[in-house]
Amino acid sequence: MLDINFIRQNPDVVKKGIASKNVNPDLVDIFLAIDDKWKKLVKNSEELKAEQKKVGKDNIDKAKKIKIEIQELENLLMEAEIERQKILESLPNLPFNDVPVGKNEDDNIVIREVGAKPEFDFTAKDHLELGENLNLIEFEIGAKVSGSGFYYLKNEAVLLEFGLIRYVFDILKEEGFEILITPDLARKKFYTGTGYLPKGPEAQIYEIKDVDLGLIATSEITLAGIHSDEILEKDDLPKKYAGFSHCFRMESGGYGKYSKGLYRVNQFSKVEMYIYCLPEESEKFHKHLLDIEEKIFKSLIIPYQVLEMCAGDLGNQAAKKYDLEAWMPGRGAWGEITSTSNTTDFQARRLNIKYRENNKKSNFVHTLNGTAIALPRVIIAILENYQQKDGSVLMPEVLQKYLGFNKISR
RNA sequence: GGAAGCGUGCCAGAGCGGUUGAAUGGGCCGCACUCGAAAUGCGGUAUGCCGAAAACGGCAUCGGAGGUUCGAAUCCUCCCGCUUCCGCCA
User: Fold this and answer.
1) φ, ψ at A332 (rounded to 5°)
2) Are A17 and A151 found together in one domain?
3) Of these residues, A45, A156, A161, A249, which one is catalytic?
4) CA dihedral over A53, A54, A57, A62, signed as positive or negative
């Protein structure tokens, strides 16, 4: 959510910013018009209430009449308020000035490429074939029991998932994160609060019938919720959390040739990093998150490239965002494996997360998120990059002590 | 899942229909006392919004959302959370 005062004072800056995210800049004028109307209604109704209070002490009949007037005004005020809030919540966060200009993912910038792509003297298989041959992944039973988009991991793939999680948690503890396993379900106010229902209701969240709960799409939701409606002490910042959860996404509709397999699924495991910090430090911590992501993939020896997202591909909440894409030989293309965003005070304002220094005035914190490890996609990358001519798959060296084996073969 | 109780400011804790944004104590911040400190005394100590250049004025907020009333922290309904007892389970 943007700062109302900032919009009032800098309408042109806001227009320019949201236009760069492909959002209609006229929304700003529409917002200001309704905001103006709202202000007038507030003034009128507050004056009447003050009158009512005064009069009620010695003239109850007159106060009763005022009450009726107030009710009429309050109805109008409520309408204006809902409309105003709706527009406000539809405005995306503004991109930083140094974010590349661009319309969509085609305009993202490759900052660097790290690691050498493997060269095979045989025809590389994709993870589907490897998974089947090595008895690691079962899609058909997943579809039978839970529907398409669900799968069972089997045998070494199970151990690989747990080994990766353990490995990553060791790194994150070292980097000063508090490690957590979060709930897989959260109340609606949280999965809307972090903006995961941006366009219309229930876009990609599974909701539980008859209760105010939905399956989270990422533990960003549960991590951001930890300090909602709190005022943190300045000295306690930054707060760095790394949370494991299962993630659930409906992903209804097709995504073409990459729909098959583990790349886009309805349920997966993920460790997410989340930082609450002082506004002046968020750019520093964004770099920190990107560094950790790169450290993980460097150590796993998986070739990747770092992308800086252009304004048009930033999404609703981010002021700046980097993705890591791993090389996936099975498709002969890069595939997204992490994403880290600086959401500045956009989430904090919506979730009401502030900090205060001694008795000074409080202010909104900045929040950042980044993928530490999204399991299925990393499993794809490992299977495909580490495959051998004989059909077996070697394990990254750093994982071996977590796995208890160094190779998967039949 | 059933029953009962509870939810007030940074904390503890009063208030249970009307000058109560909220007694009292603690904490914290000033000031005084002191060579300095402790103790003591005095003063201050919420947030959001609207209006004002400002001083300041107004409105809202006592878990959340509604309702009753001229008026609600106080009465009613629903929801959330906590505690205790019973049931059930890993």
Assistant:
1) 65, 40
2) no
3) A249
4) negative
Q: Provide the pLDDT confidence category of residue A256 given band limits of 50, 70 and 90.
A: low
CATH number of the domain that residue A33 is part of: 1.10.287.40
Residue of A265, A259, A225, A234 whose CA lies nearest to A347:
A225
Co-location of A27 and A176 in the same domain = no
Give the range of the structural domain holding residue A83, as residue numbers without chain letter.
4-90
In strand B, the nucleotides that come within 7 Å of a protein beta carbon are 18, 28-29, 45, 47-51, 58-60, 70-71, 79-80
**What is the number of H-type helices and E-type strands within chain A?**
13, 17
Same domain, A29 and A124: no
Annotated catalytic residue A166: no
- A197-209 per-position pLDDT tens digit: 444 444 578 888 8
CA of A46 to C1' of B75 (A): 25
Query: Is the CB of A43 within 7 Å of strand B?
Result: yes
Cβ contact A46 with chain B strand, < 7 A? yes
List CB contacts of A45: < 8 A, sequence separation 6 or more. A70, A73, A74, A77
Supply the angle between the helices A11-20 and A26-56 in degrees, to the nearest 10.
130
* A147-186: pLDDT as tens digits: 889 999 999 999 999 999 999 999 999 999 999 999 999 8
Residue A373 lies in a domain: yes
What average pLDDT does this structure show over A375-382? 97
Regarding whether A332 and A236 lie in a shared domain, the answer is: yes
| pLDDT top residue among A196 and A288 | A288
A115 & A197 share domain: yes
Maximal C-alpha separation, chain A: 96
Mean pLDDT throughout A14-35? 94
Last residue of a domain, one of A55, A90, A125: A90
Estimate in Å the CA A42 to C1' B18 gap, whole number.
Answer: 25
Active site residue A377: yes
- Are A211 and A278 in the same domain? yes
Last residue of a domain, which of A63, A90, A117?
A: A90
Q: How many domains does chain A have?
A: 2
